[in-house]
Amino acid sequence: MFWLKTRIIEGRGSLEKLKKEAEGHERVLILSSNSMKRHGFLSEAEDYVTEAGAEVFSITGLPAEPSVETIEEFLPKVREFEPDLLVALGGGSVIDATKALKVFYDAPELEFEEIAFIDRFSKPKPVPKLKTRLIAIPSTSGAGSEVSAASVLKKGGIKYNIVTPEIAPDVAILDPRLPMTMPREVARNSGLDVIVHGIEAYTTKVANDFSDAMAIRAIKTVYKWLPLSVKGDEEAREKVHYAATMAGIAFLNARLGLCHAMSHKAAWLGPHGLLNAIFLPYVMEFNAKRSDYARRRYAEIARELGFQTAKDLIEVVKELNEMLGVPTLGELVDEETFMARLDEMAEKAYRDGLTAFNPVEPKPEEIKELYLRAFYGRG
Ligand SMILES: NC(=O)c1ccc[n+]([C@@H]2O[C@H](COP(=O)([O-])OP(=O)(O)OC[C@H]3O[C@@H](n4cnc5c(N)ncnc54)[C@H](OP(=O)(O)O)[C@@H]3O)[C@@H](O)[C@H]2O)c1
Ligand SMILES: [Fe+2]
Asked: Alcohol dehydrogenase iron-type/glycerol dehydrogenase GldA domain: from which residue to which, for each copy (predicted)?
């Protein structure tokens, strides 16, 4: 099966389409992070909603890498305004927070612990039908949350997913003017997440020809354009912006693997895309060593990029990391603090739902070894 719930509107200036999309709604709530206000996109969006004849209310200051506490903090404001349309204007963090706010606004009887995928060996309670429409307008080029069915939230520094088609946005507006204002590091970290989405989605146990098409196009685009995009090149930023959504469509269908399981469980250490980039080469080496399927699939990607083997692709990933200044895990945290949580991270990554889609079933000790290799930068 291949599915996509979200209608995608793209192109320079397409933020204006919010006017048409807001028509027929009475109370529109825009959730955004501070940069969107600073760069004028929030007031532009507010104007479109007003022109559509709806009442608009905005909440700014949504944080990066949201947690369960973030949702508790903002939910009363959402309930107070009683919106009939939610607009998420920001990066993956804002979109994920808005998706979770939609769940608890529309279904107040639910608790995070009962609907989140805490552990792949137990099933969460299904999310009922939710009514409030959701429009996602990404300002970074990375997470793919504008088309995905997931909301990723931290609890105690560790990330868990809520996954249901009910939170996949109804509309995504991809206006390449927004990611133009990303600082270099945000462009790098979110862009690296796209490569990881593409490579992991291409190599899961449930990848199919349709998700492959999206994954390959996203990988090729990011490989070619990310270094330029990080430098601020306008054409490159636009290309990577669309590639991010393509990779989102790929993993919406093919899911992700061990790299994401490990980065979610290490979320207390740094930004999501950066952690993924750090873990990716180690996870690829692990998968390639143990699985013919993974080796063959990595080689297919390598050939699309003009190389030959799985080993070549791992080298390409390492070189890209080096070129973009991706650190080792050991540069993000001191040894003692890291070691104190290592067993917990390895056990929880083993139990993460995404680990089930990885081409190789890892043991907790093997995941621990991968964390250690990433920490010390051992090749
Ligand atoms: N749901 C999914 O399927 C999925 C998939 C992958 C990742 N994720 C999640 O997505 C999150 C990461 O999202 P992200 O990589 O998109 O980054 P982000 O965390 O949304 O954004 C990082 C920072 O970049 C700034 N920023 C964003 N857009 C900007 C712009 N256009 N100009 C200037 N500054 C801008 C924001 O700062 P200000 O606060 O100053 O605005 C923000 O704090 C993680 O929590 C990750 O777990 C979700
Ligand atoms: Fe990701």
From this structure: 6-176
Q: Name the closest-CA residue to atom 5, ligand 1.
A: 143
| Bridge partners for 32 per DSSP | 89
Would the pTM count as exceeding 0.85?
yes
Total number of domains constituting the chain: 2
Decide if 326 contacts 226 (C-beta within 8 A).
no
pLDDT digits (tens, 9 = 90+) for 57-70: 999 999 999 999 99
Q: Could you tell me which of 16, 271, 44 has the C-alpha nearest to residue 143?
A: 271
Phi-psi region of 182 (alpha: psi -120 to 50; beta: other; left: phi over 0): beta
CATH code (residue 53):
3.40.50.1970
Sign, CA torsion 315/317/323/329: negative
Is 273 close to ligand 1, i.e. is its CB under 6 Å away?
Answer: yes
Q: For ligand 1, atom 14, which residue shows the shortest CA distance? A: 92
Which atom of ligand 1 approaches the CA of 159 most closely?
A: 47
Which CATH number characterizes residue 287's domain?
1.20.1090.10
**Full strand arrangement of the beta sheet holding 85-90:** 7-10, 171-174, 133-138, 85-90, 27-32, 55-59
Range of the structural domain that residue 338 is part of = 185-376
Is the same domain home to 164 and 64? yes
| Ligand 1 pocket, residue 197 CB under 6 Å | no
Of the candidates 179, 214, 234, which is a domain's last residue? 179
Ligand nearest to the Cα of 272, by number: 1
263 lines ligand 1 (CB under 6 A): no
Domain membership flag for residue 1? no
Q: Look at ligand 1, atom 45, and give the residue with the nearest C-alpha.
A: 65
**What is the sign of the dihedral through the CA atoms of 245, 125, 113 and 267?**
negative
Whether residue 99 sits in one domain with residue 82: yes
pLDDT in tens, 278-309: 999 999 999 999 999 999 999 999 999 999 99
